[in-house]
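Predict the holo structure. Ligand: calcium ion.
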Amino acid sequence: MQPYVLIVEDEPGIADLLDYNLKASGFDTGIATDGDEAELALAERLPDAVLLDWMLPGVSGIELCRRIRRRPASRALPIILLTARGEEADRIRGLDSGADDYVTKPFSPTEVIARLKAVLRRSNPAVTEEKLVYEDLSMDLITHRVQRSGQKIHLGPTEFRLLQYFMQRPGRVFSREQLLDAVWGHDIYVEMRTVDVHIRRLRKALNIEGNPDLIRTVRSAGYALDASGD
Ligand code: CA
């Protein structure tokens, strides 16, 4: 699976260098050249990580970092600051703002990618994995094979993406809106009840032969992948 990284950088040379190298390393990327563009990009699709330039025109990287941290949806989003400044005080201030790590310019793309993989592993181990396992359920992201208790399970593409999203974040409750954004994306219009329809299909496919229900419905909140009961 390709982790999606948003690059926020106003210098086209650096943005392109990062974009090129990230893509070559299997990342999906987006570029924003200032704070406003970054905010739009973040609202459109929540990335798995952000590479954030410190010195941006308008809203600074630090301020943007604080804004990202203030919002519940992006509170835990891994952020790596790109900074040309080397002073210790600035570094500490950068980390105070909520950044997970920083890289000082000039940097090698290899170094940035290594740091990126490290923060991704910490924040969401599943994002760098090829196989997801939860209870008796397994999902191979390369071959798209899904099994429960060793039995093959057939899923449609939407149910597959739904299950993948849940398995990368087991136990967490997601609202219909959050699932729509994550699985269907912002760019298409889908009714809320469409989520229920696909959850029903997913549940039916997973709960074969009297196996316990792995999808928990949380009244007026949403759904979670949760084997702990109910
Ligand atoms: Ca800059």
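Residues 25 and 182 are 23 Å apart (CA to CA). The two ends are 31 Å apart (CA to CA).
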